[in-house]
Amino acid sequence: MFPDSNYERVYTGSLITIQFLQTILQDNGINSITRDDMKSGMMAGFGGGIPDHIQLFVEKEDVTKAMALINQHK
C-alpha cells in the first residue's frame, strides 16, 4: 500500500476467495481490509484496474498468523 501504512498485502484474488479468506481471518481475530482498483475506478467515473484482482490487507503485526491461515485454506 504505502510505506508508512500499518497494513500489508497478504493475498490478491477474486471477490469470492477474498470474502472467504476474510471470514476465516475474522473468525481468528484478525481484521482485514480490501482494495479493488477496478471498482474504485468505475465509481469515480473512469476505468482502471483488473477484474477479479482484489487485494487483501491485514495489519503488519498479524501478517504471519494471517499467512498461515491463508495457506491452510486456499
From TrEMBL:
SUPFAM superfamilies: GlnB-like
InterPro entries the UniProt entry points to: DUF2007 (IPR018551), N-reg_PII-like_a/b (IPR011322)
Domain DUF2007 span(s) in chain numbering: 10-72
Protein name, entry field: Putative signal transducing protein
Organism: Aquimarina intermedia
Pfam families membership: DUF2007 (PF09413)
